Amino acid sequence: MADHFPNESNENSLSPARPEEVADALSYALRYDERGRPRPHGGEMVAGLAAQHLAQHLERAGFVLMRKRPGRPHSAG
Known about the structure:
8% strand, two-stranded antiparallel ribbon, mainly alpha, 2 helices, flat, 39% helix
């Protein structure tokens, strides 16, 4: 049995996420729910500030977050 998915390459499939990418992802998660609907409290500015603070703290604490490389675009047709 294989330890990986058949269409996934083990070679260079992950790369370190930049702090800006982490902050953007956290900000989005704070503003929207799992369906992509805005959370009732709004707070775009507060979410952005909180996300920056969390991303900086993770970096200072020595965490390295990895990001998958984007896959090939599908062909519709």
